[in-house]
Amino acid sequence: MAPQEPDRHTFYAGKPQPSADSKETFQTTDPSTGKPVCTIHTSSPSAIDSAIRSAQSAFPSWSATPPIDRARILLRAVALLRARNDDLARLETIDTGKPFSETSTVDIVTGTDVLEYFAGLVAAGGLNGETLRLRDTVHAYTTKEPLGVCAAIGAWNYPIQIALWKSAPALAAGNTLVYKPSEFTPLHAEHLASIYREAGLPDGVFNVVYGAGDVGARLTSHPAIAKVSFTGQVATGKKVAASAAGGMKYVTMELGGKSPLIILPDAPLDSAADVALLANFFSSGQVCTNGTRVFVPRPLQRDFERALLDRIRHVRPGDLFDPATNFGPLSSALHRDKVLRYIRTGTELDRARLLCGGPEPVDGLPDSVRDGYWVRPTIFTDCTDDMAVAREEVFGPVMSVLYYDAVDEAVRRANATDLGLAAGVVGRDLDQCHRVIAQLQAGITWVNTWGESPAEMAVGGWKLSGVGVENGRRGLEAWVRNKSTLIDMSGSVPTVFTKL
Ligand code: NDP
């Protein structure tokens, strides 16, 4: 079958640049059918260098553009993104395998909100510094300066949202950007670049390179790159941070997690089960902040499991464009195989009790999507802390339920991991909820809900889950450097080198 999307080429100086590409290509596939969708031309080393040069030549003028004028351009892009929400959502569905019911209400919406937030923030003085009055004749001021040409490298689970969460504060602060989407989900990038251009973004401010890890690695080690903002796995993040450190570049690292969800003894069971399902099966479990270790008081075991089984019937795989479908295939055959290996490990080696799901094919799929990369929503229960499924990030629809006897014990076990991205509690007594949250070692926490991440709220991981934050006021600080200036108006230089 012929690809459904036009070829993608390195995008710089305001347009796709077929002539600059190497001969290497790769195909993307629709995860619901396994069929090819698009041919991507891998950016050659010289094409990557040209994209960086394009960003370098655009920097002096873009960084000197007043923030309110930059904001006007970005707000025009906001309007275009909202007007084209459904077209972009269709593309994200074909690229990622997420149902249209999800991509049309979450992916572009939450990315665009962040663009609107940072445009508004810089227009309203968010890049202003401080004035410090030190003495009558001496004061100091600070200014926030953009960093220069920055690199953004994305994961495959929220492609356009990640591209917007990185480009919004970067561009609003006056930087120029070279963006590499994941090789598995690159389709959005050219549309975003074209929308920015249509909104009035000068050529060279937003550029796109395509390819696998070697393309990302060329960006992170390039001397002209001032900062690397990375979203991906911990193991890759370590390589990216090490490479960036060699050039003393700024970094933001948004990495993986194995986040705990603690159901407190007084929790309403229906809400607890709703939160657990949301925290595990949204986006078919391919969410970095998923609450995959669900700690439940032992006396609630039977009722909690029944509540989970009642609800699992409402996880509906199917045609991704059917409004009733709320569960899609995994993003690639490679990733499906990895998740299935974890499920087999859970049953065969860990010997966790399989409450539902498992490695068998998903039943009842329409013929049109039967060849997709499906995995059943799977719940392991009676898990122990040392099991692979309860310890390692699976990044698929696999929940591990662990029982506990005392809340302190649950907190201790929840924190016994090198990761610290997210955590949450469900309970009626809000005092106790806050006491538990205060003890949990994670950068993003929720009480009686899961997953909402509004533009105003800074988010980032603790421990091996990351460095720095995205979004919120603090998210802008990640894209600027500080300059402090002290002015002495006394008329005499306070030197010690005077005649005795
Ligand atoms: P990967 O780490 O495999 O890849 C992330 C990006 O890095 C891809 O574009 C990849 O290229 C690129 N890359 C690979 N090697 C290098 C290298 N040496 N130098 C520079 N770039 C490189 O992550 P996944 O795509 O598998 O994404 C899933 C992971 O992302 C999960 O661990 C998830 O938790 C995490 N994540 C974290 C989020 C957060 O906000 N904390 C949000 C979303 C996801 P390519 O894959 O194209 O070869």
Automatic annotation (TrEMBL):
Residues 1-38 are annotated as: Disordered. InterPro entries: Ald_DH/histidinol_DH, Ald_DH_C, Ald_DH_CS_CYS, Ald_DH_CS_GLU, Ald_DH_N, Aldehyde_DH_dom. The active site is at 254. Residues 21-484 form the Aldehyde dehydrogenase domain. Keywords: Metal-binding, NAD, Oxidoreductase. Residues 1-10 have a biased composition (Basic and acidic residues). GO terms for molecular function: aldehyde dehydrogenase (NAD+) activity; metal ion binding. It catalyses: an aldehyde + NAD(+) + H2O = a carboxylate + NADH + 2 H(+). Its EC number is 1.2.1.3. Belongs to the aldehyde dehydrogenase family. This is aldehyde dehydrogenase (NAD(+)). It comes from Sodiomyces alkalinus (strain CBS 110278 / VKM F-3762 / F11). The lineage of its organism: Eukaryota, Fungi, Dikarya, Ascomycota, Pezizomycotina.
